[in-house]
Amino acid sequence: MQVHEAREDIPEGFVHSGPAPQDTVLNLRLALVQSDPAGLEKALMDVSTPSSALYGQHLSKEEVEKFVAPSPDSVAAVQAWLADNGIDAKTISPAGDWLSFAIPVSKANELLDTDFAVFTHEETGKTSIRTLAYSIPADLKGHVDLVHPTITFPNPFARLPAMVTPPKIKPAINITSDAVPASCSSTITPACLQALYGIPTTPATQKSNQLAVSGFIEQFANQADLRTFLTQFRPDLPASTTFTLQTLDGGQNPQNPSEAGVEANLDIQYTVGVASEVPTVFISVGNDFNDGALEGFLDIINFLLGENAPPQVLTTSYGQNENTISRNLAANLCNAYAQLGARGTSILFASGDGGVAGSQSSRCTTFLPTFPSGCPFMTSVGATQSIPETSASFSSGGFSNFFAQPSYQSSAVSTYLTALGNTNSGRFNRSGRAFPDVAALGDDVEIVVGGQEGLVAGTSCSSPIFASVVSLLNDQLIAAGKSPLGFLNPFLYTTGASALNDITTGSNPGCNTNGFPARTGWDPVTGLGTPNFEKLRTAVGL
Questions:
Q1: For 167, left (φ over 0), alpha (ψ -120 to 50), or beta?
Q2: What number is the average pLDDT over the span 88-108?
Q3: Which residues make up each annotated binding site for Ca(2+)?
Q4: Strands 438-441 and 432-435, bridge-based pairing
């Protein structure tokens, strides 16, 4: 047996509470080593880089699976090992690279030469069964990528937007005005976004163009609240405009007003209510296998990879600190985003709401990057506030400790680091993948929850807003006989950069520092900036 993955210490906030009960059943997942991740990355960049001859020629399901499917030798070796231990595993991903099986702790300890223990998160009292290291047979090196959940810890603070007080003023808003309504200085509505970013109000026309919103941790999107929201803030759209529902892992979407989720309602209201008549799907991921959101993160991507026509845009407003996750799992999830991106899906995630402290408090001494924002194959969205826009102080941003800086952003990031000088020296990884990539308004955003209007704040407002802009661009591209945008970053850091509103004021404090300052060009608070729809239309060739 050879140690396969280990972590040096228990993540901050957790304590060891003793050995795990031997008869507790663990739902384990095993990832096999994929056949050609480097080939997949090259294919992704070829179809996503505007200067490439293959730009926009997205891959088919079968083409992607060829890069991902483990070798027959790996499949045989792993299945033989499991069978020798009396374990019958089932395949849970389209390419056959993920297996799942359930065994008691006693058997897991024996199989992986480890000691699973109970860890308690002191602040919330939530417990998890984890280990700090595990082993696999030496002859399975090169065949097994990882076993999960083992050394990856859950996120006890599932990131949800902060509710602020209900708005006091309700001035009438002129939807067609080009000038930003005065009320937008205190309350952000779809009309504010249309005026500020030039987002069109004309209905989308392409029914094949789909915008997907992910839902986790029993956050449910309420149809009645959406109708109220549209009646109040998009009276030009039919009040009956709604979303379709997909579920996995026992997900559901009950419609009792008391079960309406702040996050789910926000995400749905600022996709359906901004991406005018783009077909929107809410994907509710249940807790059947869930100990935190990471299993759901994996399952939703495998679910979409299994579809013959996955959505062109996926927005997610959840995440956690990078240091809670095993490097192998982070890399595997990141690779799953590359697979979906190669097929033409733009994947956007909120960057987080703790400034340079991720989702931590001021206890940190080095900056905490968030996951999956550190993954180079997705688009991370930070937040702005106020009009004129300035950086939102909570906007998470920084540099990954797991992922190297991708070539598409090296020029923009090196310009920033040169200007930054020695500020925050030693607190972050200068050679890491830098995030966020872009930003949108994320403070004083008005939503309806349980029939009541209120304001929310967080990068979880910004991601669905930016996703809506991308979906409306896709609608026009598809109508013109062109490909959807797919993986956005190589475009954003080249021809797209000048089509964004550069945010140059503010910072994102945390860890008892002022964090990073926003500057001209890219910065780790608001990325390259916020959308300008007309300029983006030109940049994408419309």
A1: beta
A2: 93
A3: 502-503, 521, 523
A4: unpaired
For 63, the 3-state DSSP assignment is helix
| Local structure of residue 22 (DSSP, 8 states) | T
- The answer to whether the pTM exceeds 0.85 is yes
Nearest CA-CA partner of 438 in 494, 401, 492: 492
Q: Which two tokens stand for residue 304?
A: 């979409």
CA distances from 246 to 204, 220, 310, 341, 346 (A): 22, 12, 12, 20, 19
CB 478 within 8 A of CB 540: no
CB neighbours of 40 closer than 8 A, spacing ≥ 6? Answer: 34, 64, 67, 68, 335, 338, 339, 342
Label residues 37-68 b or e (16+ Cβ within 10 Å = b): beebbebbbbbbbeeeeebbebbebeebbebb
Residue 46 near residue 115, CB atoms below 8 Å? no
State the amino acid at position 363 in one-letter form.
R
Annotated binding site: 502-503, 521, 523
Domain ranges of the chain: 2-34+69-148, 178-539
Give the three-class secondary structure for 340.
helix
Give the pLDDT of residue 472: 98
**What's the average model confidence in pLDDT over 347-370?**
84
Q: Does domain 2-34+69-148 have CATH number 3.30.70?
A: yes
Q: pLDDT-based confidence at 124, cuts 50/70/90?
A: confident
Class of domain 178-539: alpha beta
Characterize the bridge pairing of strands 346-350 and 500-501.
Answer: unpaired
How far apart are alpha carbons 133 and 237 in whole angstroms? 54
Domains 2-34+69-148 and 178-539 share a fold: no
Q: Which residues are marked as active site?
A: 263, 267, 460
Q: What is the pLDDT of residue 294?
A: 65
Beta-carbon contacts of 186 under 8 Å, excluding residues fewer than 6 positions away, are 167, 169, 444
CA neighbor of 409 nearest in space, from 44, 43, 49, 55: 49
DSSP H or E segment with residue 404: strand 398-404
Q: How would you classify the pairing of strands 398-404 and 25-32?
A: unpaired
The Cα–Cα gap between 454 and 468 comes to 21
